[in-house]
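User: My advisor, Dr. K., asked me to get a structural model of this assembly before our group meeting. I'm new to this, so sorry if the format is off. These are the inputs:
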Amino acid sequence: MTLPWLILTAPLASALLSLVWLRRHHGLAAFVSISACAIAFLVALLIFLDHSLLPSPWKWLDIQGEYSLRVEIGWLVDPWTRLMLLIVTGVGLLVHIFSLGYMAGDESRGRYFGELSLFMFSMLGIVIANNFVMLFMFWELVGLSSYLLIGYWFERPAAALAAKKAFIVNRIGDFGFMLGILYFWSTTGTVKFTELAAQPLIGQEPQFLTMLGVLLFCGCIGKSAMFPLHVWLPDAMEGPTPVSALIHAATMVAAGVYMLARIFFILKLCPGALDVIAYVGGFTALFAALIATQQNDIKRILAYSTLSQLGYMVMAVGCSAPDVALFHLTTHAFFKALLFLAAGAVIYALHHEQDIWRMGGLARKIPLTFATFLVGTLALTGCPGLSGFFSKDEIIAVAQQTHPLLYWSSLLTALLTSFYMFRLVVVAFTGSARSEAAEKPHVPGFVMTVPLIILALFSAVGGFIGLQKYLGLDAVSESGATLVSIMGGNEQSPSNFLTVNASMLLPVLAFVVGGLAAWIIYRKRETDPIHIGILAHKFYIDEFYDLVLVKFQQAVARILAWIDNWILGGVLVRGTATTGHISGELLRLLQTGNIQAYTFLFSLGAALVVYFTLLH
Amino acid sequence: MSPITLAHYLTISGLLFVIGLAGVILRRNLIVIYMSLELMLNAANLTLVAFSRFNRQMDGQILVFFVITVAAAEVAVGLALIVALFRLRQTTRVADLTTLKF
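Assistant: The format is fine. Below is the predicted structure of the whole assembly, which you can bring to the meeting.
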């Protein structure tokens, strides 16, 4: 079977073509890139519909011996893979098309589209990977393309710094991830994702297993920007907005969650690890939602919202419900991509104005963008009937069952989510225009609005159609059952905890209270009436890292530089050179130029030789 | 009167050598230095002949012929050099010829 391989080779070929030959041919590069993405989408659709389509793996490494290692570039196709392929290529295609409008006029679009194709290639590689080594390779490749795209406008120092920050912070997480992979391999002797592969882990010491789980989770902490390493994601907003939509909202950052779901067969053997995952996720969700309430940059609010939603997903995995996490991942991919693209359309309309306090009254000026943004907001905040409502409710319900503390914190997060999203909507779209650009926005064109409308449709109904059926193998009985209960069906499943009752009303209540509060506080305001310094400064985490890590590292670097300069360079390197130089200077004095002096020394030497050889 | 032994020859040869060396080291005139050099060469020749005679082998004498031949050629070259040097510098005093000094 070679057809499925097109899903990888088409974007790869497009990336090579665009980056090597077509960097100056913008139109052609965009065409190649979009068609590669369309091909990938068609193949994904085919794989989604035709379950018999199973590509044969390509053997890459086969090392025999005491430590044997077999690595193949192969496929692990299950319902989740099919769905994920469809999301990545589908959202990717829409973002590609949207980029045509958003990036029009940029001077190096060819490079942009090439890098976008490179990202598609790497991300699809992660989705299909059937072993750790392949996953890790593509994992690093998405890191690379993320770095390239964040720093796309590298002539702006902020973008270059943000790209470096994202890359370095991800290295920290990936280092732990790599240790985890090596740990797993050294114990089981294989790197494949199969239940069978995890057999040797059973009966290992619990501490060992916990450590393994936490190390593997490190990869997710970096890539999905969980709490200690979350700092790179808000800064990554320096990249072009379609990139933020595709990479830093819908797909790449969700790869961490996807990976956790993939390796859940290992995680469930690790007793403490799941709790760590659940609490880190729950904490990040609340933490990021708190910060989001005091941000003023439209993209940053969405970035913190993404952090918060990723926290939800990770928490769901930690509560032993990876299916629920992936369900939320799916709906989140739609509505967050929609929100980012709509934000991109707003930014485009206002000539690159991102401060919500310089917007206002946009609902009347760009109604279509407003409508789609509103749909995205409602979906994200969990308005009953829209996609986010189902997936978020699932997560809250799972938390209720397993971790009561996380249940309350996730409810609070839901309330805050509703609050900050409606704050954004109320401030940016209602009231009166607060800047010149907002008076006369230029209306986004056709290329930009069509992807918005498509995404808005999916955000609205994503909770119902298709997804349940294809997810609804035994792995997802819970979400399937929820749908049945919501639609008024009878409940047979014993795990069907979520019925239309009081516990379901609480998230709805959170949605309503948050939204109303934002409406009351922010309606017709010219400036922000609330000032909470610690939230506006993101809990001073960046400052803390700057103080502790960056300053410390600089001090160490300065000490090492001193040692290098004076001990290694001064004494060892320049010392030997100086010794040679000085002895040369001294011996030079013997060169008197007087032939008789030479003769005398020569005969003295000869006499000494004779004395020592013959007479001594 | 005792017969002349090898030791006598060697003593004479050693004396000649030392006198030559002293001349090379101490005299100031380049031509005198050159003569002293020839004296050292001949001291060596005398040693060779003496050994040849007392060991009853002719090799040493043949070697001496070569040395004399080479020395003759060397004198031709050396004197020519000294003449050329004198033309250039108007002196044969070694103290004046210190171009190789540091």
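One thing worth pointing out at the meeting: Confidence is low (pLDDT under 50) at residues 469-501 of chain A.

User: Perfect, thanks a lot.
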